[in-house]
Structures are given as structure tokens and as C-alpha cells.
Amino acid sequence: xxxxxxxxxxxxxxxxxxxxxxxxxxxxxxxxxxxxxxxxxxxxxxxxxxxxxxxxxxxxxxxxxxxxxxxxxxxxxxxxxxxxxxxxxxxxxxxxxxxxxxxxxxxxxxxxxxxxxxxxxxxxxxxxxxxxxxxxxxxxxxxxxxxxxxxxxxxxxxxxxxxxxxxxxxxxxxxxxxxxxxxxxxxxxxxxxxxxxxxxxxxxxxxxxxxxxxxxxxxxxxxxxxxxxxxxxxxxxxxxxxxxxxxxxxxxx
Length: 253
Fold this sequence. Notes:
- Helix content is about 45%, strand content about 20%.
- By secondary structure, the protein is α/β, with parallel strands linked by helices.
- Strands 1, 2, 3, 4, 5, 6, 7, 8 and 9 form a 9-stranded mixed beta sheet that branches.
């Protein structure tokens, strides 16, 4: 089974090598295509990228979903995923994915949260997400995004059915994509750690956390009427994200 991994990036020389090494070190029965889509970096990002892949697009884009759509056009693997350039895959992730992917359109697994040094953080949020990830239902997904993006893998023919990422949602395009995908097919949950998501002051998930959560609430209205109890849970997530952001960066966005 061949994998295509899209890596959108911009000036990420500090973390990119670890990201790409986590892809090339994976063991599975097939080839791995790394597609790096760069938004005209001015640091050593491209120099690092060329050591790991020849499939590089370096040009201005209209945000991460636009970059990912460029990558989708180049993807040739049986399985497609994307990994932000500051995140990493866990060892043997592809092997686990390969074992359950053949008869499923898309799957999602667990993820750690790590800091700049790679140490695990936000353990309480990790536990909460794991509780929500069990027993998938589309109704639950419509009220709260419990899927960890870097631990999602999709069949290429299924991606073609779902379509491209929506550039109108620059911060929550992944959540919007999961909601569209869920209308076509239910994902399978893999109760294993497949990736680690890095939280630091330069990441969009931290810089724009409060705005991201507000957009999520707006998106929920588009797909389904909210459940009041889960809506309350969403508001608590917004509050906790705001506090995490304030603690990490020191101001609100």
C-alpha cells in the first residue's frame, strides 16, 4: 500500500527535519511519496526539504487549504494524509494504518500534544479527546471536532469523492472536510497513537485558537442543528483554548 503525505510549510526550519524524518522512517509494504508545498519560505526550509523529497511546490498560496489542494493534485498513493511541518508521526504509524485501511474509506487515531522540545503536554485535553473519539457518530462530530488532524488517513479514491479542501475556512478547513467526508462514509477509529501535534507560539492552532473555535461554532450551524449539551462542551473547549493561548503567547487574537 503506497502512501502520499502532503506537508504544507512556511519558514519551519526549526521543526521540518524531525517532521520529514518521522515520515521517511515509517515501515510498511509500499512506497511513500512526500509532497512538500511551501509558501515561499525565506529560511532553510527548502534546503532541508530537498534532502527528503523531489516533489516540492514553492509558490505563494491563499492559505493552508490552498496549499493542500495543490498537494492533492500531485498525490499518487493509495492512502493520502497531510502532516503540518511542525508535527510528527509516531513510529510504526503507517504499519498500523496499513493493517486496517484496506476495507475502510478513512480512519483516525489518537495523538499526543507536544511542546517545542517534543515533551508531552496538555494531558487532560488528550484524555478528553480520547473519550470523545470512541464510538464515532456523525451527530457527535457535528457538535464537536474530536478528530486529531495528523492522525487521519484517507483512501485516494475516497478523497476524490469528498473533493478539495475549502479555502473559505482557513483555520478550520480540516473540520469542515471531516464533516463532508462523514456525510459519505463513517471513519474507523484506531485506538493507537499515530502522531504528535506540536503546540508552540508560532503555530496557527495557538496563535488563532479563539478565532478558530468561533469559526467552528459557525460551521456547526451549517451542517446540523446543535445539541445543547455538546454546545456547552464546545464553549468550555473555547474557554480552555483561550486560557492556553494566553499562557503561551500572552495576548489574544
